[in-house]
């Protein structure tokens, strides 16, 4: 047990490990809720578990939402079914690693959070303005990371539409077709029993597409998210130690400096020779053969077009 805890701490200590951190947070919340559900059910206090879930799920009613505004964030870290979280986390990992490799860890976080938030907003807006959903307004609740995962998936498909996944029984399939299939599926189910969740999927897909398109044109939608994450991280970051050196009755004070690996923003724009070399490598060995720096250079070059 201690080894597992140590492994988790080690993963959270890594600065460029945002995708794994998101998956670990979702898994931890699920396990805590699962244990709570078992305990409260066996003790015949299931009402307490219902109250907890009610404060984590996103309500469709704007009136109810005003009393629990935090649910716009908590809902996409909350799952109560093993297959729901398993599918969402696998979906997130498969596509999220591409965003991580090509654009850096911070953009995985931005896509996940923006997709979840916008998906939740779309869900509430449509339930409150379309007469079809009015009879279900007060009873409707939403939970799960599907909208956030959709944003990451569609973002990756927009960035690398011809990248292929090898699927069991189907073989290699371009990820743009995988994303398109799930978008059509969600669209078809917007009038089904899980209409709210599928509306949120479409909201997340919208964010994923426009996030990448704007980024390729030089506009980064994630800047407010980066600022908030840095502020939040700064609250828990240890202050650098101060060292005092005495020399000839003079005092010199120096503070330790934190360094981090370069993000895609620090990658220099490659020249045509480098681009040709990278493209040749892709034609011979595929996208998977590129290093992270080469992938980021390729994306940097695409922004200059």
Automatic annotation (TrEMBL):
Superkingdom as given in the UniProt entry: Bacteria
Family: Belongs to the peptidase S54 family.
Matching SUPFAM superfamilies: Rhomboid-like (SSF144091)
Protein name from the UniProt record: Rhomboid family intramembrane serine protease
GO molecular function: serine-type endopeptidase activity
Principal location: membrane
Transmembrane segments: 19-52, 72-96, 108-130, 142-161, 173-192
Compartment list: Membrane
Gene Ontology process terms (BP): proteolysis
Domain DUF6576: 271-303
Entry membrane topology: Multi-pass membrane protein
A GO cellular component entry from the record: membrane
Source taxonomy: Bacteria, Pseudomonadati, Bacteroidota, Cytophagia, Cytophagales
Peptidase S54 rhomboid domain sequence ranges: 69-214
UniProt source species: Dyadobacter luteus
InterPro entries for the chain: DUF6576, Peptidase_S54_rhomboid_dom, Rhomboid-like_sf, Rhomboid_protease_S54
UniProt keyword list: Hydrolase, Membrane, Protease, Transmembrane, Transmembrane helix
Pfam family, one: DUF6576
């Amino acid at each position: 047990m201690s080894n597992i805890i140590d492994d988790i701490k080690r993963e959270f200590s890594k600065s460029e490990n945002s995708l794994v951190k998101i998956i670990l947070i979702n898994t931890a919340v699920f396990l805590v809720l699962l244990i709570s559900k078992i305990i409260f059910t066996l003790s015949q206090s299931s009402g307490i578990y219902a109250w907890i879930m009610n404060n984590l799920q996103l309500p469709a009613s704007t009136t109810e939402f005003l009393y629990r505004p935090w649910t716009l964030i908590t809902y996409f870290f909350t799952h109560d079914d093993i297959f729901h979280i398993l599918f969402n986390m696998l979906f997130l990992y498969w596509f999220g690693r591409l965003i991580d490799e090509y654009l850096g860890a911070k953009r995985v976080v931005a896509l996940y959070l923006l997709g979840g938030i916008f998906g939740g907003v779309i869900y509430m807006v449509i339930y409150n303005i379309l007469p079809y959903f009015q009879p279900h307004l007060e009873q409707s609740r939403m939970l799960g990371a599907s909208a956030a995962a959709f944003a990451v998936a569609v973002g990756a498909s927009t960035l690398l539409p011809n990248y292929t996944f090898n699927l069991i029984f189907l073989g290699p399939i371009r990820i743009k077709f995988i994303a398109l299939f799930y978008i059509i599926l969600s669209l078809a189910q917007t009038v089904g029993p899980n209409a709210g969740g599928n509306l949120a999927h479409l909201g997340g897909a919208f964010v994923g597409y426009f996030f990448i398109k704007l980024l390729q044109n030089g506009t980064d939608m994630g800047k407010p998210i980066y600022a908030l994450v840095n502020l939040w991280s700064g609250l828990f970051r240890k202050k650098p130690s101060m060292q005092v050196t005495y020399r000839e009755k003079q005092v010199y004070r120096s503070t330790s400096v934190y360094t981090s690996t370069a993000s895609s923003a620090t990658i220099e724009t490659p020249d045509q020779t480098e681009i040709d070399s990278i493209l040749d490598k892709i034609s011979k060995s595929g996208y998977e053969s590129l290093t992270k720096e080469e992938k980021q250079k390729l994306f940097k070059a695409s922004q200059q077009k």
